[in-house]
Amino acid sequence: MALPASIENERNRFLLSKVDSASFKEILKWPKGSKDDFAQIGQIILEFGQIDTQLRSIVELIYRFDKGQIPVKWHSKIAKMTIGDTEDALRTSSWISDKNAEAVEIMRECRRMRNMMAHFMMRRFPDEDALVFITKSDEDARRAFGSLPAPGQILTGVVDASELPRKLKQVAALAAWITDIAIDVGDHYFSRRCG
């Protein structure tokens, strides 16, 4: 699972220092989040369900009707492709212009945030308008940092709550964009076949 890159700024360092100074027992007693936090995070996660379904559908259609647009290395793996491979395959097709390739990269970065939101435990700072996401996954730590964590070490990420509406707007726009492409791809191949 790809995780978001660490963003080093004064605010995040301040929030992480608050996490580091609290015991895990104390953090577990922090609020789980507001209804707005859960609603926005839930919508981000569900929007990505739509994005991933559309991505896979697009690549399968292109493979079925125009196999030459999909790199040969994926021809025997279409049904088993990771979502990252699916994004890469779509980027190589004529359906994605250079300008749209940027959107695929933004999608990839947003998915990293979505992964953290969907798979980590969440707590709200008791005295800050911010969230901390926590997990205990040696494999995620190895992927993120290149080595296994020390025994008892946890992974944390912090997000200002004010960032959630902006991220949701960005993800919803990506979902609308990929849906438009899915419709165009479907119309193109099915009208050509049936028309």
Describe the structure.
The protein has 195 residues and is mostly helical. It contains seven helices and three strands; from the N terminus they run H-H-H-H-H-E-E-H-E-H. The protein has helices at residues 10-21, 24-28, 35-65, 83-92, 98-119, 138-145, 163-194; strands spanning 121-124, 130-135, 155-160. It has a three-stranded antiparallel β-sheet, with helices on both faces. Helix 3 (35-65) crosses helix 4 (83-92), helix 3 crosses helix 5 and helix 5 packs across helix 7. The radius of gyration is 20 Å and the shape is elongated. It starts with 9 loop residues before the first helix and ends with a helix. The model has no long low-confidence stretch (mean pLDDT 88).
Write a brief structural summary.
Helix content is 62%, strand content 8%. It is built from 7 helices and 3 strands, in the order αααααββαβα.
Number of helices: 7
Mean pLDDT: 88
Any idea what the shape is?
A: elongated
Q: Radius of gyration over alpha carbons?
A: 20 Å
Strand content: 5-15%
The biggest beta sheet, please? 3 strands, antiparallel
Number of strands: 3
Q: Main sheet: which strands, in order across? A: 1-2-3
Order of helices and strands: HHHHHEEHEH
**Helicity, in percent?**
55-70%
Alpha carbon gap, first and last residue: 42 Å
- pLDDT < 50 runs, ≥5 residues: none
Strand-pairing-aware structural class: mainly alpha
